Amino acid sequence: MNKQLFLPLQLPDDETLDSFIAGDNQQVVSHLQQWLEQPQPTPFITYISGDSGTGKSHLHYSVCSIAASNNLSCAYIGFKNLAELHPDLLADLENVALICLDDIHLLNAQSAWQAAVFDLINRVRERGDGRILVSGLQGPTHLPLALADLRSRLSWGLSFHLRPLDDESRMEALRSRAHRRGMTMPKEVARFLLTHCHRDMPALLAVLDKLDATSLQEKHRLTIPFVKKVLGL
After folding, report:
1. Tens digits of per-residue pLDDT, 97-140?
2. Are 63 and 85 in contact (CB under 8 A)?
3. Main-chain dihedrals φ then ψ at residue 183, nearest 5 degrees
């Protein structure tokens, strides 16, 4: 099996623990760093819950990056692409050192998938040297899954809930993402975006995508007048 198994798509290489703005979530970052260093991880399941846009997928990508850099096999499965996937994808994944299951709440009406994840967890436990990172909107005991035994299995490990970033951390995240794209975002521009745009991170990052494309095309630095023009404010 390939050392690096990214499924079903190539993961972003700029979403790492270094680029993750933790805010009040430093505990989960510290846990993941230590968890990945253990030859026989205890517990073998880590569960992360949080609202959309709080960074669950970013953490999945981050641990995959660390695993790959340490020559560990890893698999990432994002259930937002469920229509393109089949439960057979989980066969033999117990042989992978790190398995990431993102957005597991989306299996709410998928009995075959729930059974397949349940069986996978049992096989990883029997093998004894693998680890599974799972994320969902709700905590494991509150997932809308019909298979109660799966909710029970997901509760075996440590569970963390991601808290949304405050405004200062949102500005830091925006400026950090802009910097990684080769843009300089003054603090007053970041503050302007938070004041005049939707404040959740997915919406703010979508605005940044638009500003990035337009500033590159027009060769214009990020200023408040430029931002107003691009966003029609």
Report:
1. 999 999 999 999 999 999 999 999 999 999 988 999 999 999 99
2. no
3. -110, 150
CB atoms within 10 A of CB 181: 15
Reported in sequence order, the residue ranges of the chain that DSSP labels E, i.e. its strands, are 4-6, 45-49, 74-78, 98-102, 131-136, 158-161
CB 140 within 8 A of CB 159: yes
Q: How many residues are given for the chain?
A: 233
Query: What predicted TM-score, i.e. pTM, was given to this entire model?
Result: 0.85
CA atoms of 155 and 42, how far apart (whole Å)? 13
* Other Cβ atoms within 10 Å of 179 Cβ, number: 12
pLDDT at 182: 87
With contact defined as beta carbons under 8 Å apart, do 146 and 113 qualify?
A: no
pLDDT category at 11 given cuts 50, 70, 90 is: low
